[in-house]
Amino acid sequence: MSKYKLIGDYAIHDVIAEKIVDSITARIPFVSENGSLQYGIDKVFRDLRKESIFPSEDGIDILSLAALVYLADTRISRSRHSEDSWVREITIELPVINLAKWLSLEGVFSKMLNFLTGDRWTIRFSQRDISLAEEIAQGTGFDVVSLFSGGMDSLIGAINHLENNNRVAFISHAGDGFTKDAQKSLIAEFNNQYTDNAPSYFSLWMSFGKDILLDGGIENTTRSRSFLFIAFGIFAISGMNRVNVLQVPENGLIALNVPLENLRLGAHSTRTTHPYYMNLWNSILSDLGFQCSVENPYWNKTKGEMAVECLNKGFLQNVIKKSTSCSSPQKARWSGLPSQHCGYCVPCLIRRAAMHKAFGFENDGTTYSRTSIEELINAHAKRKGEQLRSFQVAIKRIKDNPSLKGLFIYKGGKLDGNDDYIRQLSEVYQRGLLEVDGFINAYLQHENNATG
Questions:
Q1: Domain 144-205+247-451 carries which CATH code?
Q2: Average pLDDT of the chain to the nearest whole number
Q3: 66, 227 in Cβ contact below 8 A?
Q4: For residue 267, pLDDT beyond 60
Q5: Which residues, in sequence order, are bridge partners of residue 12?
Q6: What is the DSSP secondary-structure string of 88-136?
């Protein structure tokens, strides 16, 4: 086990690492030998310039911080560098241009990342003496900036914006080829469907060498991905003068991500769009002087409700098979299949329930490795059935005592807001579980009829 300290550096050199006992310090260069910014940042700079978008110095610092966080998260193995196979100790030091503003936020960034990834983060800032931003008039051509993951929720959000004739900039990040292919395929569908209002698409592909960190290893849990995703969106918006909201489309059940049962904590409970995490982002943006906020427009909707209310349901049904929701599409390879939806992880089950609510499960064109609900119930003690079983536990609990919904929503993390806001959160949690329950029962009836 080792503690890690990563220091961002704008000098040109290779990664410089030093190990003293159980502590490793690495200086991470942001500038390559040809003078361009590394890790995909220079490419998105160039892509944004083509649309007259010129990110600010603070926008650059947000994205640079996210790059170091994402590097640490994906290249420090939890199994190798934590006492409990999960919690790592990581320090990040980044040079920033407006040091006085950033110093007061060191503790807030640390708290945010601790909540998001379950690690122990220490964030430190130092002075950046070189300027990186271009002082040019900012782009004015967009009405909306929205994250676009290639998942079902971002697909529905995208369709709604395009149906409303909004000029949209989609912000994407992909850490694997399956997700990247989904994004590109859906963008092509938008361009064909909305020829008079085709969206702009900005994609960040950030990757690091497997051995970039001394003794680091590989980590695939990627809990910090949403930090990078949102930071990229803020980076882009900092170069615009008409957009003041970054939209992060996610259904309310997944955003809350309440543990389905007491054992589903830690590694099972992601917080990528949790309301508390989003509120921390807005607090940071306000204190740094950004004229924008992050918002989830679907925080009080289930996934099925989003699908039912989509402004072009026919188009959604036609292209849904090209979107991706699965938590680990690569695991299909264990069965000799290409990367695809497994059909039994939590996101897959919520997706399948949403399609059932909107179209009937018979009209879900998605390819799943496993579809039979009876098979998953019978495999409740195995990996492919345990998440359905967890849903059944949570559903029974909320059906037996609906009044507990207001208590359960706090199990995913801290929540702030007035009584009406908390009530709506508890109700979307309940409706989301019952949406999955309706799908399970309908599919079991379908299977019984088929065999009867």
A1: 3.40.50
A2: 93
A3: yes
A4: no
A5: 31
A6: -EEEEEEEESSHHHHHTTHHHHHHHHHHHHSSEEEEEEEE--S------
Phi and psi angles of residue 112, each rounded to the nearest 5 degrees, phi first: -60, -45
Residues near 386 by Cβ (< 8 Å), separated by ≥ 6?
Answer: 380
3-state secondary structure of 200: strand
CB atoms within 10 A of CB 65: 22
Residues 6+ apart with CB under 8 A from 421: none
Residue ranges per structural domain of the chain: 3-132, 144-205+247-451
How does pLDDT run across 163-213, given as a tens digit for each residue?
999 999 999 998 778 889 999 999 999 999 999 999 999 999 998 999 999
Secondary structure E strands in 254-337: 293-295
Model confidence at 85, in pLDDT bands (50, 70, 90)? Answer: confident
- Given the structure tokens 């859906």, which residue do they identify? 186
Q: For residue 382, what are the contacts with CB-CB under 8 A and spacing of at least 6?
A: none
Q: What is the DSSP string of 15-61?
A: -EEEEETTEEEEEEEEE-TTS-BTTTHHHHHHHHHTTT----HHHHH
**Distance of alpha carbon 93 from alpha carbon 101, whole angstroms:** 15
Tokens at 227, concatenated: 């930090």
Q: What is the pLDDT of residues 5-60, one digit of tens each?
A: 999 999 989 999 999 999 999 999 999 999 999 999 999 999 999 999 999 999 99
Residue-wise pLDDT for 19-32, tens only, equals: 999 999 999 999 99
Strand partners, 409: none
Residue 306 · residue 153 · CB < 8 Å = yes
Query: Which band of pLDDT confidence, cut at 50, 70 and 90, is reported for residue 262?
Result: low
- The predicted model scores a pTM of 0.95
φ, ψ of residue 341 in degrees (nearest 5): -65, 135
Region of 21 (left: φ > 0; alpha: ψ -120 to 50; beta: rest) is left
